[in-house]
Amino acid sequence: MAAPVSVDRERAAITARSILANVDVLEGEGLAAGSRDAVLEEAGQLTGAVEAPEDAAVLALARSIRERLTAVPGRTAAVLVAWLDDVLEPDA
What is the DSSP letter of 51? Predict the structure, then answer.
């Protein structure tokens, strides 16, 4: 059985705030409207990661946002995906 992942909740919340602050840039880089709405909703939820009751919820939100941003070809999206990777795989 794999060891449980320790979630850096503060890093997750900071990344989420960065996503919210850059959503217009992400849209300019190719984030589709439907994905934009989902990213806004999920990043809004992730900003509360410090108080989130379960690591699994934080990880699920980070994975979902990462999946949506991976489809965006721009540099800002790539940086945010890398930050989400740090949340999802802190020891990598």
Answer: G
Q: DSSP label at 90?
A: T
Nearest to 22 by CA among 36, 8, 10: 36
Total Cβ atoms within 10 A of residue 31: 24
Two tokens at 36? 């934009």
pTM: 0.89
Task: Name the H helices within 1-92.
Answer: 9-21, 23-28, 33-46, 55-70, 75-88
Residue 43 has pLDDT above 80, yes or no: yes
DSSP 75: H
